[in-house]
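Treating backbone geometry as a discrete language has practical consequences that deserve illustration. The sequence in question and its structure tokens are set out directly beneath this paragraph.
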Amino acid sequence: MVRKRREPEPEQSNKKQEKSDQERQNLAISLVPAKLQWRCSVAQTTLAFPNSRSIAVGEGRGRREWRVKCSSGGEIEKGAVNFGPGSPVRATNILVVGATGTLGRQIVRRALDEGYDVRCLVRPRPAPADFLRDWGATVVNADLSKPESIPATLVGIHTVIDCATGRPEEPIKTVDWEGKVALIQCAKAMGIQKYVFYSIHNCDKHPEVPLMEIKYCTEKFLRDSGLNHVIIRLCGFMQGLIGQYAVPILEEKSVWGTDAPTRIAYMDTQDIARLTFIAIRNDKLNGKLLTFAGPRAWTTQEVITLCERLAGQDANVTTVPVSILRLTRQLTRFFEWTNDVADRLSFSEVLTSDTVFSVPMAETYNLLGVDSKDIVSLEKYLQDYFTNILKKLKDLKAQSKQTDIYF
């Protein structure tokens, strides 16, 4: 007589899964050191360091050889282990980190439109992210600067989309390095199937800029973690131009520019979100580095001129020479409490140098199966904005006149 194997009761099975998930959370927490250290040396030298990268950086007539080495420190690298299967998860279960930001909110909206189950990791704050809930996403509170809060947010998640970046008042390394290392470490321990990380175009060419160096180091840490991943380098967001140029011009306030010929291929964050999910669904792109750029690279003056034409009024432009930015950066280095200001100014200096933040996109479009005609141009994006805002201003003016008549 063959005895049938007794199937576990659903309740017992659920309890086992819950126990497994809890064990994974505990393991993930135990792997994160109390304090991570970012070891990065950037110095002019002729010595070769093991496991370091070397980049030639042009300066003036000569060239300097920079040797850069970055690692997480502590025991973090030893802890990057997947501890076996937990609860089965669907590929549509995603966690968006940095969901309230300029790019993050577009990622959330696109994911919901495409039928994903979206969980948003946001910091605890006095003003909750209710708009994310209104759209249909689930919101969980955690803080990348507190690694012990991360593992619980990853339970039941298949893919992590990392859009987070530190606040201006925070040290750059707190979120952009220590927080990201902890998140990647926990993702590995919790069995996350795919990790999408947004970086900066040309970050590997500017080791002297802390923010770009940290982005490059995070890329390397993610590759070394063994997680399935896609790294997407970005050039610039069209949305950022609204507050920087469009609104001040309409309000007849000063807009700030530089005398540098830097060109940036801005991209609509809605297009970035759409291309991201195409990349996520293509398993052939696992482990790939992609760069997204808009159809054309623009100088600051060209952007201001375009806004002036569309707004129908001149801009009050205040030009800041690049030499002033460099001097300010050097002065702030004398005071420890201004080090982070200097770090951010060094990034500004790159953005105002003779640099082009753009790449040819034909190969990427072909890889993703996207028609370049479907990518929004900056002219079209700003035209739509000014058309809508000027119509609203006209309507408000008409209502104001009507109110004056009645009252």
Q: What stands out?
A: The mean pLDDT is 78. The first strand starts at residue 39 and ends at 44. The two ends are 95 Å apart (CA to CA).
